């Protein structure tokens, strides 16, 4: 409809331009006609003046002829004949000018006739164009009235006095709001099930019910079902075939919804299984790494003990009686290592039998406190043994310093192992 109105408006503009050009052309023709009439009048005046002059010349020519006949004897014949020839030439020139004026007058008459015929044709064409323009204007007015009436009826019946653009814009806003609200509801714990239910149904509508529903999802009907019901409402009578088709469509919709729910549950559980598998795969390498570290630590301790024994055996004879005390110190260290292994075992049992994260953390705290207390006791015991250990000779200071360094290394390794044990249990939680 809008294209047709634009086409009619363009045609109206072209007709108007053509009418303006015809009016301008007609005005020019009128001006030319007036100029031709004025020129004809001037030509008639010139002809009348020439005729008057000719009459006067003829009257004057008669008088000289009479006078010439009376006074011929007294005047010279040569002078009279010259005057007569000059007058005759003058009259011939006048006759020639009169003939030229007659020819010009005839040409002007033909031009006037042509202009008059063109003017008549232009007036007829102009009248036809005016009539056609009036008819098109009436058609456009009728179509505009019909268009306004149609738009008004559409606004009244379907769009509630709103234009189509406003209705579509408002509908888009409502869809966006609905989508945002559903996403917010699905994030809440209370309405997460309802949000998943609507998503698996590919959209749903709430249907009011007189009876209260035990579950909120019972009043939400899939969108395809409501659309199918709206379509079948328009049928005047529902036959058995129509009802069967309706039931099949409803059944298909609910089967699709259940299929979507099952696929979503499969995806969720598969994600959990994959996560557990990944944790299991990560746990085995971690245990291997922990075992390798313990083996490395034991090897380093064995190497240090071997070095200590070799160094002590190569020292002077006076320090031999005190080797028994050093062996006792090493036994104490070994007993502390055994105690550390027991504590690690208790820690693993506590981890397996934990009732919750808080209890496990309390057990870890107790374990760490106990281990650190044992470490402090061991450190103090070693210091006491070193202080009671006597060295003789000039190299006693160096020997005592060497022994203290080795003991400090043992204590430092023990502390690092304790910290590693506690950190590994915290990371495992």
TrEMBL record:
Residues 56-70 have a biased composition (Basic and acidic residues). Keywords: Coiled coil. It comes from Stentor coeruleus. Residues 112-153, 259-353 form a coiled coil. This is Uncharacterized protein. Residues 56-80 are annotated as: Disordered.
